[in-house]
Design a protein that fits this description.
Elements (H helix, E strand, L loop, with lengths): L2 E5 L5 E5 L20 H9 L6 H18 L3 H4 L7 E4 L6 H12 L3 E5 L15 H38 L23 E4 L5 E4 L8 H17 L6 E7 L22 H8 L4 E7 H16 L2 H15 L1 E5 L13 H17 L2 E4 L2 E4 L4 E6 L11 H5 L3 E4 L5 H9 L5 H10 L4 E4 L1 H17 L6 H17 L7 E4 L1 H13 L1 H7 L1
Parallel strand pairs: 3-12, 3-13, 4-9, 9-12, 14-15
Antiparallel strand pairs: 1-2, 5-6, 7-8, 10-11
């Protein structure tokens, strides 16, 4: 393939050179973020994240290195280690937002997990290996969707043909008795035909076949009506797969034991015969069901699984949030023992091991791990030394300033001001923020962070929610559909909350 179009969440596309799979075989690679040069990756992140240039640069290099490793000589390819990163910074400065945008832009298998949700082996809860199983499930869904998109038109065409067969059933051929052996010189038996008036006449030939031309014309008329949506209110009867018995829920593997050998429910379902039932549904629902059935026939799941496992091993990204919650001073009693146990469980996965999943074994040697944490009560050096060594890149994210708040309110494509303008626009009203009004909102949010707990950019959401509370409640009955917030209007609406210290702590 010559070029790929990397589609952004807004629908825009960036044309880039293609990348083949590392092994050089199999289907062409999808448009991944790693196909872009680092500077362009940073530009993509700039559209949604303000500041934090060091973190963006580190992420861009780490992602691009996946592309570089795929083109390295084969004898050294396996020796190139992932560019694992730890992002350090207070809450609300963009660590999670970077993960969200990577998930939408990367194109490769990506999941975000929280380290605090895992427990040491032997305790009740999820084990660390479950993150790899979740990543494989994500990859299976991604590749299957791509394969279905490739054959969707063919599946829709086949579904339409099946639907037309239901709407216009074929006329069964006439049943004729088997021809008796006729002796030489013996006349063939005659056929007696009963006319409309009840008169019986003798015929030496069978009745003519149904008018196929007329049926073909009727089928094409139905096809036109189906394409135009004029049959959407008609109900048809189709066969659908019957839902499995509830007893299968009892065989679901417990958390931490979702391996290949624990899929008892799937094994039992494969052993039992497939059951179907007939349902009366409208034409659009019937068409959707038939398309799903055709897609399952056209998509080779063995190929999907093989491609998914390859993508996980060579292009997978796992974002481990709240890693500081499992860090603490060692050689202490109590919960910290379990924290160190979680670190020890994470260590073999990050440094490279083989994890058993329901689809096969997955090597984690070249999965990219990006960890993030606030590290308020701890520091990265509190992690066990072996785990520290597997995250060689440290990036510190800067606290947000008042000027950053102003940029966050105006520059990103998903800025809060644009979100509220879209909400107000649904009521056929117009919302406008002046420059001094946005600056006043940023000032209030920054002061609230300074006076209370610093929650970063999330404080803007609480301030905006308080500011827009009355407007959103009264908007349907409001006569004036033009709302403007300047500095004076912002101060007037927020004055009571800002001046009352107790009220500010409660609301903001």
């Amino acid at each position: 393939m010559g070029s790929t179009d990397v589609e952004s969440p807004t629908g825009e596309s960036v044309t880039q050179a293609d990348a083949k799979t590392p092994e050089g075989n199999g289907p062409p690679s999808p448009p991944w973020l790693e196909d872009l040069p680092p500077r362009q990756i940073v530009m993509e992140l700039d559209r949604y994240i303000i500041g934090q240039e060091a973190a963006k640069r580190a992420i861009a290099i780490a992602v691009r290195n996946r592309w570089r490793r795929a083109r390295a000589p084969e004898e050294i390819r396996d020796e190139i280690l992932p560019y694992n990163i730890i992002m350090i910074g207070p809450t609300g400065v963009g660590k999670t937002e970077i993960a969200r945008r990577l998930a939408r832009l990367a194109g490769s298998p990506f999941i975000k997990v929280e380290a605090s949700k895992f427990t040491e082996v032997g305790y009740v809860g999820r084990d660390a290996e479950s993150m790899v199983r979740d990543l494989v499930d994500m990859a299976i869904n991604m590749v299957r969707t791509e394969r279905e998109d490739e054959v969707y038109d063919l599946a829709a065409e086949r579904a339409d043909e099946r639907l037309l067969d239901i709407l216009l059933p074929a006329v069964p051929p006439p049943v004729t008795p088997p021809k008796a052996e006729v002796e030489e010189g013996e006349q063939p038996q005659s056929v007696f035909v009963v006319g409309p008036t009840g008169a019986v006449r003798q015929s030496d030939s069978a009745p003519p076949p149904p008018d196929e031309d007329r049926r073909t014309r009727s089928r094409e008329k139905l096809r036109t009506l189906l394409e135009q949506g004029r049959l959407d209110d008609r109900e048809v009867e189709i066969e659908v797969a019957a839902q499995g018995p509830l007893m299968f829920e009892l065989f679901q593997p417990p958390q931490g034991m979702e391996g290949q050998e624990m899929n008892l429910s799937e094994m039992l379902q494969d052993m039992l015969p497939k059951r179907t039932k007939r349902r009366q549904v409208k034409v659009p629902e019937a068409r959707r069901v038939l398309i799903d059935e055709e897609l399952k026939k056209l998509v080779d799941m063995d190929d999907v699984v093989n491609e998914s496992l390859d993508r996980v091993e060579n292009h997978g990204i796992i974002f481990v949030d709240e890693i500081d919650k499992i860090a603490g001073e060692r050689s202490q009693l109590g919960p910290d023992v379990s924290r160190e146990g979680v670190q020890q469980d994470l260590l073999p996965i990050v440094e490279g091991s083989t994890v058993q999943t329901r689809y096969g074994y997955v090597r984690t040697d070249h999965i990219l791990f990006v960890a993030a944490g606030a590290f308020h009560a701890s520091k990265p050096s509190d992690l066990i030394p072996e785990l520290q060594g597997r995250f060689p890149i440290r990036v510190e994210l800067n606290p947000l300033t008042e000027a950053d708040f102003v940029r966050i309110m105006t520059e990103p494509e998903n800025a809060l001001t644009k979100q509220y303008q879209a909400l107000v626009g649904a009521e056929e009203a117009a919302l406008d923020f002046t420059a001094d009004g946005i600056a006043e909102i940023a000032r209030v949010a920054f002061r609230a962070n300074d006076a209370m707990e610093n929650i970063g950019a999330r404080r803007l959401q609480t301030v905006m929610a308080t500011l827009m509370d009355d407007v959103l409640f009264e908007l349907p009955e409001r006569s004036d559909k033009k709302i403007v917030f300047d500095a004076a209007a912002v101060r007037e609406r927020l004055a009571k909350v800002v001046e009352d210290d107790d009220l500010r702590r409660y609301i903001l």
